[in-house]
Amino acid sequence: ANNKTIMVEAGANQVSEADVTEAVSWAHKQLEPVIELINKIRDEVGKPKADLITPKTEEARLEQDERHEIEELACAFMKSTEATTLFAQPLKTKADRKAAVVRLKEALEKHLLEQELSKDNRKKASDIVDEFVDSEITRLILEEGKRADGRALDEIRELGAAIGIMPRTHGSALFERGSTQVLSTVTLGSPGMEQTLDTMEFQTKKRYFHHYNFPSYAVSETRSNRGPGRREIGHGALAERALMPVLPDREKFPYTIRVVSEVLGSNGSSSMGATCGSTLALMDAGVPIEAPVAGIAMGMASDEKNGKYRIITDLQDLEDGEGGMDFKVAGTRKGITVIQMDTKCHGIPLETVKETLAEALKARLKILDVIEKCIAAPRAELSKWAPRIESFKIHPDKIRDVIGPGGKVINEIIAACNVQIDIEDDGLVMITSTEPEGMKKAIDWIKQLTREVAVGEIFTGKVTRIMDFGAFVEILPKQEGLVHISELAPERVNKVTDVVNVGDTVTVKVYEIDSMGRINLSIKRADPNYKGSTRDERPLRESRPGGHGGHGGFGRSSGPRR
Hints:
Radius of gyration: 39 Å
Structural class: alpha+beta
Number of helices: 11
Helix content: 25-40%
Number of domains: 4
CATH topology of the largest domain: Ribosomal Protein S5, domain 2
Number of strands: 22
Strand content: 25-35%
CATH architecture of the largest domain: 2-Layer Sandwich
Oligomer: single chain
CATH class of the largest domain: Alpha Beta
Distance between the termini: 79 Å
């Protein structure tokens, strides 16, 4: 409104500050017709705002008089030496600042007690102290360029970064900015662990998700810690969005990635702390992200009446008061990946947005220096506790052979090899396991199931069925071929069971694959000396020329094939 920005939230693919500023400016122009329409409707049908009329009862009059009296006494006290020197010396920690405000409230309550005010009225003075502290913080920043903890307006609190601090996680890191501390951990899973999202329009899958937890002890409170609330979900989504543009493609890194950020201590922008912690943990886990991502929260102190404002870097506790803003910016050295802003004033002009982004870039680069000093690039190897993924292609028509009826075959492989198997529609097979032996066994199993048999290959297989016209031999898992009676031995065979029986292990050679894909096998071409495990030792009866003994003079059955 009035060329001012009230709220912004956006994701970007490492976009420059200049482009983001231009995008905000473009958005303003697109909103102008909408604002004009709203104003037109208001002029046509709007009603004038009614003045608040308070009941003129004796009780209301007394309450109003009491409040005026409290305000006069409190304001007079605030002008005393103790109140005006509240921030004369830097109060470095949140505990120091909180203690100073508590002392001021206690001193004011004592002063009001001396004025013989009731206890209920003395408690009302607490709000007046909070208003005074907010105004004093703003005055210090605008008039003196000072902050309650003694930092310069563009100064970041002390930074710290550590990786690999948890022994059994796939990746872990601790990021510190002042008393804001975030512990992030990474878990790598199989591609099949992707989260399925059902929306009103379509179904999609999510392979990277960030869970943000904010327990009560992070702000020295004690309350029941239940499921994530609106704030936790929003902060987690913001940090998740910040990392999305730098994640590797699924083809390059097929893992499903879960990051959990536990806020151990909070004093300003734990969501940006979670962003930095996520970056460190992902690099520690060996996830090949394109570039490290860091984030910072920018603030502002302003006096809207006089049009004065000052931008502050690394917002914390008392600085997030009236007339301010909370502008979170995250990105890489190359550009911005996410921004989120809300204000406690009537919006900020475009020039202030531009200035804030410029200051945020300076801060972001300093944080990235700390991150890269801790770990310059993602680890070359995954954690020994992380699962490994092997992938290979099979013909799409063979997918049904791997899955089997009702999933029988694939479930058998999973159970026997202790692996996870994911198969894409294009035939890409991905096997996930923490056990190398199980991985190899599953790969060999699937390759045998889907192997394309070629003419001339020799196999050792087991006889599975006996027919009048030949024997069926399983040469690969779930794949059989026929040894016709004429291919059992070099000499004439009258009865198949004279040479082979069900359960016999035989060596066969593929001599033909017909147009229907049926495999024709031969024992005599693979092993001319094979005599059979159960055949009689007496010589076989020779056929008479042109005779019809059993199968005709050609020694070949004309019976049907399966």
